[in-house]
Amino acid sequence: MTKQNQTMSIRHYPLAVMLWLYCTACNAASPGQAASSGNSADVLTGRTFVYCFNPAWRPYDYADSGQQKGIFGDYLQLFAERLGIHVVPHQTLTWTDALDAVKRGDCDFLVGAVKTAEREQYLDFTVPYFDMVHVLIAKPDRPFIGSLSSLSGKTISGPKSGAIMQWIARDYPSIRQKYVETANESMDTIMADRVYAHVTPLDALVSDYGWLLRNLKIIGKLDYAYPISIAVRKDLPDLKNAFDTAIVSLSHDDRSAISKRWTTFTFVEEIDYTLIWQVLGVTMLLLASFAFWNHHLRQEVAKRKELEIQLLERTENLSEALNFNESMLINSPIPIGVYVESGQCVLANEAYAKFVGATREDLLAQNFYDISSWKVSSLLGDCLTALKLQEPQQREAHLVTTFGKNVWFEYRILPSHLKGEVHLLIQFFDLTERKRLEDDLRHLAFHDPLTRLPNRRLLLDRLTQALYLGKRENNYLAVLFIDLNKFKQLNDNYGHDTGDQMLVEVANRLQSIVRQSDTVARLGGDEFIVLLSRLSTDAEQAAQYAKSFVEKIHSALNSDYVLGNVHHHGSASVGIKLFLGGDMDPDQILKEADSAMYEIKKGLLQ
Predict the structure, then answer these.
(1) Which of 23, 5, 2 is nearest to 13 (CA)?
(2) Strand (E) positions, 376-518?
(3) 424, 428, 407, 406: which is closest to 415 by C-alpha?
(4) Residue 56 parent element (H or E)
(5) Which residues, in sequence order, are bridge partners of residue 521?
(6) Under 8 Å CB-to-CB from 489, ≥6 apart: which residues?
(7) What phi-psi label fits residue 70: left (phi over 0), alpha (psi between -120 and 50 degrees) or beta?
(8) pLDDT band (50, 70, 90) for residue 27
(9) What does the DSSP 8-state code read for residue 454?
(10) Choice between 134 and 292, residue whose per-residue pLDDT is larger
(11) Which of 203, 123, 191, 194 shows the shortest CA–CA distance to 163?
């Protein structure tokens, strides 16, 4: 094939790919089923249905003066308006009570539930309309975990009858479970050490725990997908079909409006992929129907010449539909690329080009075997696995694209055949902003917002680790408690803005004189801590180093400061607590260092 012919082949190839994609969709509803769903909504117009919900699950579901509130409640009201039905809540005290009520037939459906094998015995589930992320929260001294397997033998708490707890029990039977119903109950079990950690949705953290957040920290993220559906009793199929119709009708603006009303710190607005794929699924089956009839008509044309007109009409409709759906995919907000077995990209839409910071022409010139960022991430390996096993692959990844863009994303690789050749359809879902918000949340939990130094919580964690390391290596450590002299007068005379500038400058000077293995932290006000670890195994040498370091602190801090238009001569009082690593109380060590500093300060005042 000449170079010119190759160009022509690639130019027309996406249309063939579209036909293959749509004709091989085997899991969508038929046109007849779609029509049935619309008829179900018409039959139900004006009827009243009773529903159950979780009365204590902010911000998703909760009871307020006998009425349902929250994210799921907003979605339900939107569905009810579009279907022309009336919905009435059935009051229960807990989520477990709600499940029991729908089993008994006290209510017709659950407004927000996750599909499990047990629940499918008595409920039918709509397509999902909401996704949530679950995290593990614990006391500040708990280390971060990389996998749930590291919690083997420990106890975690979570909602009774919750699907997430059932999945953890199934996959990690060595983790013990304790069931709680409210945020206060879970907080009590964590702080009393009755459990190691608690499972909660990320969006519910601030809503449920409020000011208690300063006593907690996020120690890990659960990798379970948690799609929320409406669960309808099996004897009400028309109601389930009607809700499916309402969910498909959701627009991006509908979801964004509800998210902005309830989301506290997770501001990632999700694209309504369900709606897009529902529309594509119905369209694909229409196209498959057209293809079938075209083939049938070609076989019968010799016997029934009068069917030639129908064949021409159906061919014209197929061509129009293919052109329409090719345009729809090219302009889809979901980044999508199609690659052949050789690694060559044969289809790329505008969203894909924007996602990686390139043009469509750049992407069509790519071969994934030559993309360096795919090689160092899991993406190339999963493409090869999908080609070898002919099974879909899905994972989160982080990479810098060939075009210099730093992105976090989830990808889904779907293999199939066209004309005897394997193709990979790859979808990309941008998680970059969500990851940034999660990192910001973790940083705020462990750092002072003014000086950016570690706060008391992170200091205690590092002091605990230093004690353990000192015990293992028989090394001495030192805690230096620093208090700025006459700081209150500076604030009173020149204002808090000047005082804040002073604190930032002190933090910078302390950081410039410590070793990389040491820690500078701010406890609050004008109190700072320097943790010196691994001083020496000899007590005298360790004490000598700590004293010499105090002189470095005085040299750095007892000098002039230029704070805007204010010239100030500062000084500091420093207390020393020297100790050998071991099983000691970090809070008690800070108290003793504070007392040592107070004695120094008292001597200055005499």
Answers:
(1) 5
(2) 393-400, 406-418, 421-430, 476-484
(3) 424
(4) strand 56-57
(5) 529
(6) none
(7) left
(8) very low
(9) B
(10) 134
(11) 123
Angle between helices 252-262 and 71-83 (to 10 degrees): 150
**Whose CA is closest to 587, among 473, 467, 472, 503?**
467
Q: Which residue has the tokens 């994934």?
A: 368
| Residue 395 tokens, joined | 């994972």
Strand partners, 218: 137
Q: Write down the pTM of the prediction.
A: 0.39
Q: Are 189 and 178 in contact (CB under 8 A)?
A: yes
- Is residue 74 within 8 Å of residue 262, measured between CB atoms? yes
Distance CA 312, CA 320 (A): 12
Contact between residue 572 and residue 558 where contact means Cβ atoms under 8 Å apart: yes
Please report, for residues 142, 168, 181, 229, 260, the alpha-carbon distance to residue 172 in angstroms, rounded to integers and kept in the order given: 20, 5, 22, 25, 36
Phi, psi of 527 (to 5 degrees): -105, 125
Decide: helix, strand or coil at residue 373: helix
Report which of 308, 320, 315, 232 is spatially closest to residue 283, judged by C-alpha positions. 320
Interatomic CA distance for residues 61 and 369, integer angstroms: 47
Q: What are the phi and psi torsion angles at 304 (to 5°)?
A: -130, 85
Q: What's the rounded mean pLDDT across residues 460-479?
A: 91
- Bridge partners, residue 340, by sequence: 423
- Looking at residues 377-395, what average pLDDT do you find? 92
Q: Are 503 and 525 in contact (CB under 8 A)?
A: no
CB 216 within 8 A of CB 137: yes
Tokens of 398: 């982080």
Is pLDDT of 505 > 80? yes
Residue type, 462: R
Q: Are 506 and 529 in contact (CB under 8 A)?
A: no
**pLDDT tens digits, residue range 122-179?**
999 999 998 888 888 888 888 888 789 889 999 999 887 778 888 899 999 999 999 8
Closest CA to 313 of 295, 290, 331, 292: 290
Tokens of 452: 């950016």
Residue 421, C-beta contacts closer than 8 angstroms, at least 6 positions apart: 340, 341
The length of the chain in residues reads: 606
What pLDDT score does 273 carry? Answer: 46
Structure tokens at 372: 């360096």
CA separation for the pair 403, 420 (Å, rounded): 33
Q: Count CA within 13 A, CB hemisphere, residue 505.
A: 20
